[in-house]
TrEMBL record:
This is Uncharacterized protein LOC102805250. It comes from Saccoglossus kowalevskii. The chain holds residues 1 to 101 of 138 of the full protein. It comes from the Eukaryota.
Amino acid sequence: MDATVTVDFRGDIAVLRMNTPENRMNLLLISAVDEALDRIERSNATALVTIGTGKFYSNGMTAEDFYIKDLTASYRMLKKWNQLTTRMLIFPMPTVAAING
């Protein structure tokens, strides 16, 4: 798992923490969150708390990664983002965002 996301377990509660300066959603962070969710689903966790580090929970998407000159790359970014948000909405355990900032 990439250091941009960490997972800690506090009893049966998983804590997913995004660790980038502004937690802007780019392909790297989306992939890291997705991998962390895989790990959490394989665990014995019964609930999930997500949190950001520092000033921002998430400061949106990076324009550089979303508005790419290559339309195929932009579509790939949007598809990955939609897959992650859908996964979070149907995640098989209660999920809470502890929004900091």
